[in-house]
């Protein structure tokens, strides 16, 4: 069955530190992968997406993600976090036959000043 | 910019009440979706619609129904609200043939 796993429920980093949020997917075909961010009290905003081509994709707000087919992973990274990055982050895979997104459980990011 | 709006940000209802959650998008998108979001479970798809008057069950349709009478509007209906339907509800839309979804701000529903 198709699924997305985000192993870390909650991560705390210091402002200015680097960040990596993990995402593993299970999907038989070539995946279309997404990272969304949800600020407190808000809906989801698309950070970046991977469809094909270069496995390192750049997104908004200085985020990037790397697709690794051999590891079934699509980890999100940022070299230096800002206090405004505190939010919940969701990884998702698009199921082409069913035309729907399957989301991971989410990772809540807290930034220490 | 795509705009997806939801009728209420916060809603409090009593057990057994009929509840309507409304979602409107202004970009002429064919596809619309309803999710519920619970801590530790991420987003789970309740229902979706590819066109007016069409609907498809998602992963957790039990206790819910939907209505899509106009292209821009997609309603989620709780026929008889129960406390286990207390949750955040998110609506999304997308263009036909594409996979990027645009989300509304969400409705936090509390059922007492």
Question: Descriptors for this entry?
Answer:
heterodimer, A: 113 residues, mainly beta, 6-stranded mixed sheet, 12 strands, 54% strand, globular, B: 112 residues
The tally of strands of chain B reads 11
The percentage of residues in β strands of chain B lies in over 45%
Helix fraction of chain B? under 10%
**Secondary-structure content class of chain A:** mainly beta
Q: Gyration radius of chain A, to the nearest Å?
A: 14 Å
Oligomer: heterodimer
- Helix and strand run of chain B: EEEEEEEEEEE
Category by helix and strand content of chain B:
mainly beta
**Mean pLDDT level of chain B:** 94
Q: Please describe the biggest sheet of chain B, giving its number of strands, its sense, and whether it closes into a barrel.
A: 7 strands, mixed
Description:
The complex is a heterodimer of chains A (113) and B (112). With 113 residues, chain A is an all-beta fold. In chain A, 0% of the residues lie in helices and 54% in strands. In chain A, strands 2, 5, 6, 10, 11 and 12 form a 6-stranded mixed beta sheet that branches. Chain A is globular. The radius of gyration of chain B is 13 Å and the shape is globular. The model of chain B has no long low-confidence stretch (mean pLDDT 94). In chain B, strand 7 and strand 8 form a beta hairpin. Chain A binds chain B through residues 4, 6, 9, 32, 34, 36, 41-46, 49, 90, 92, 94, 96, 99-101, 103-106, and chain B through 4, 9, 31, 33, 35, 40-45, 48, 50, 58, 90, 92, 99-106.
Could you outline the blueprint of secondary structure elements for this entry?
The complex is a heterodimer of chains A (113) and B (112).
Chain A: E1 3-5, E2 10-14, E3 19-21, E4 24-26, E5 32-38, E6 44-50, E7 56-58, E8 64-68, E9 73-78, E10 87-95, E11 100-103, E12 107-112
Parallel strand pairs in A: 2-12
Antiparallel strand pairs in A: 1-4, 3-9, 5-6, 5-10, 7-8, 8-9, 10-11, 10-12
Chain B: E1 4-6, E2 10-13, E3 19-25, E4 31-38, E5 42-49, E6 56-57, E7 65-70, E8 73-78, E9 87-94, E10 102-103, E11 107-111
Parallel strand pairs in B: 2-11
Antiparallel strand pairs in B: 1-3, 3-8, 4-5, 4-9, 5-6, 7-8, 9-10, 9-11
